[in-house]
Amino acid sequence: MSNRDGAKMGAEPKAETLRTKIGFGAVYGVCWLVGLLPLWFLYYVLADTIYFLLYRVARYRVKVVRANLSSSFPEKSAKELRLIERRYYHTLSEYFVDAIDMASITPRQLLRRVHWPAENRAELNRLTAGRNWITLLAHYGSWEIMNAYGLYADGPVMSSVYHPLNNKVFDLYYYKIRNRLAKLHSVAMKEVLRFYMANRDGVDGFPLSIGLVADQNAPLDAQSRWVPFLNHPTVFFHGGEKIARKFGLPVYFMHVRRLGRGRWEQTFELIWDGVSPTEDFAITGEYVRLLEEDIRRAPELWLWSHRRWKKRIHGTAARDYNAAYGTDYPE
C-alpha cells in the first residue's frame, strides 16, 4: 500500500468487528471535534480538567509514580518529589490533549507548536547529506507530536516505530492520527526492516528518518545488557543500534524542551555518524546517558506512571553488573 507521498507503508490495523468500527468512529469523531476548539481552551481548560480528574479524583497510578520517583531520586526531599509529581501529571494531561488534537491538526498548526531551530536543522542536513538516519527518542515531553520534524520542507520523511496496543479501537486511532499528515508514517515494530528495505532509497527525493522510542520496558534476551539508569539496573531496547550498524545509518538523539503549554522545541544530537568504528552497545549506551541527563534536567517530562523497573536483575547478570559498576545487588 502506498500513501499520497509515495512511501510503501506497513499494514494498517484492521477493525475486525462491528464493535471496533463503531468504537473507532466514535472516538475519532469526538477527538476531531474537540481538536477544533481554541488552544486556550484545550491547554488551559481541558488539560487542567484532565489533570484534576487523573490526579485528584482517580489518583491514576499515583503509587507507581511515587515509587518510581523516590527510588530514582533518593537525594531529593519529599517536598521536591511532590512538586515533580504534580508537574508530571500536568505533562501527562497535556499529552492526552495532544493525542486528541492530532485528529484534526494541520501541518502548519503542528509546526507552530513544535519548533526545530534552523541552525540545528542545517547542521543535521549537512552531516547526513541526504542519507537516511535513525532518531532515538523517549517517552519524554509530548512524544505523540514529536514527529513534527518530518513536516519541515527540508526535513526527512519521518517513520515512527510503534508497538500495537491490545485495545483495537485505540490501536487503530493512534495509527490513523500518526499517518494522516504527509511525510509522517508509523510502522509496527515487526515490520520495520521490511519497511526500511522498501524505502531505503528515500521517498520522493526526501531521506528517511526512522524514529524509535527506545525507553520502553524491553524484554530480556541473550543480547540484553543491564546498565545503570536513574539509580536502577535497567535493560533497554537495542534494535535501533542493530539497524544502524547493519545499514550504516547515522543515529541522532532527540532532545525535547518545553516552551510553554502546548509548545515544544526539539533538537538533535549526533550519537553515531554511521561510518566510524563503534563498540557493541556504544550507541545504546550513549542514548541512555543523554536520556538520563534530560530527565534529571526536567524530570516532570518523562513517563513515570509505567512500571519501568518490574524486571529484577539476578544471577550471572547481577554478578557482572556489580563487577562493572561497583554495586552490590544480590545475586
Topology:
Blueprint: H1 18-35, H2 39-57, H3 62-72, H4 78-101, H5 107-113, E1 114-115, H6 118-128, E2 133-137, E3 157-162, H7 168-179, E4 184-188, H8 192-199, E5 208-213, E6 226-229, E7 232-235, H9 239-247, E8 251-260, E9 263-272, H10 282-297, H11 315-325
Helix pairs in contact: 1-4, 1-7, 2-4, 3-4
- Which structural category do the helix and sheet elements fall into? alpha/beta
Count up the helices.
Answer: 11
Cross-sheet strand order for the largest sheet: 1-9-8-2-5-3-4
Assign a percent range to the helix content: 40-55%
Largest sheet: 7 strands, mixed
The coarse overall form would be globular
Strand content: 15-25%
**What is the residue-mean pLDDT, rounded to a whole number?**
91
Unreliable stretches covering 5 or more consecutive residues: none
Count the strands?
Answer: 9
Q: Tell me the number of structural domains.
A: 1
Radius of gyration: 20 Å
Gap from first CA to last CA: 50 Å
Order of helices and strands: HHHHHEHEEHEHEEEHEEHH
Description:
The termini are far apart. The model has no long low-confidence stretch (mean pLDDT 91). It contains eleven helices and nine strands. Strands 1-9-8-2-5-3-4 form a seven-stranded mixed β-sheet. The chain has 331 residues and is an alpha/beta fold. A hairpin with a 2-residue loop joins strand 6 and strand 7 (232-235). Helix 1 packs across helix 7. It is globular. It has one domain (18-325).
